[in-house]
Amino acid sequence: MADWPNDPLEELARELRQTVGAELRAEAEITEQETHIGRLRRLDMADVAKAAMHRGDLVSLITATHTVTGTPVYVGKDYLVCQTPTEIVDAAFERILIRVERRPQGGHTAHGGSITFKARLSELEHSRELVKFTTADAALEVQGRVAVVAADHCIIENPDGSRLHIPISQIALVIRPRPDL
Fold first, then answer.
1. pTM above the 0.70 mark?
2. Interval 31-59 mean pLDDT
3. In the beta sheet, which residues pair with residue 64?
4. What digits encode the pLDDT tens for the residues 75-98?
5. If you write DSSP's letter for every residue of 35-83 in order, what string do you get?
6. Which residues does 135 contact at the CB level (< 8 Å), separation at least 6?
7. d(CA 44, CA 160)
8. For residues 110 and 74, what is the distance between their CA atoms, to the nearest angstrom?
9. HSE toward the beta carbon, residue 143, CA cutoff 13 A
10. How far apart are CA 20 and CA 25, in angstroms?
11. Nearest-CA neighbor of 115 among 75, 175, 168?
């Protein structure tokens, strides 16, 4: 075949690479972005917390009256346990906001722990630990022991002997000192 100075097939190939190739790349990017958004839509708060725990991220648990920052150490169905330098915090997903700050450190997988927030409260009833409770709507902080975990509320026994009935759905954070300090 003769060597043409202006090969029409070469010119056509260049044009196809520039136009069709760019269109295919743009379409692939859109598809990839839509797939990513679809994955994000399926996440719930437990998924977000588990991913942060596995990556070793720092999380801030935000309520109307408190912001606690630490690392997630356990994630249940409807709550997470976060460790700060001085405290361990159990936080109910339905009452908090979570801000995730990615860190380049390795995370971990959690073993054990209660599956639900109500079960975690029952553990505190049996341990009789003195803890702080913060509520979401009442913007209240109470220190005491879980005397009873009832069907839909906790009976908190204050150090002065009085009792407070708090709906479980209102408890945002349960804060206790780290036992290793």
1. yes
2. 91
3. none
4. 999 999 999 999 999 999 999 999
5. HHHHHHHT--HHHHHHHHHHHT-EEEEE-SS-EEEEEEEEE-SSEEEEE
6. 141, 142, 166, 170, 171, 172
7. 40
8. 5
9. 5
10. 9
11. 75
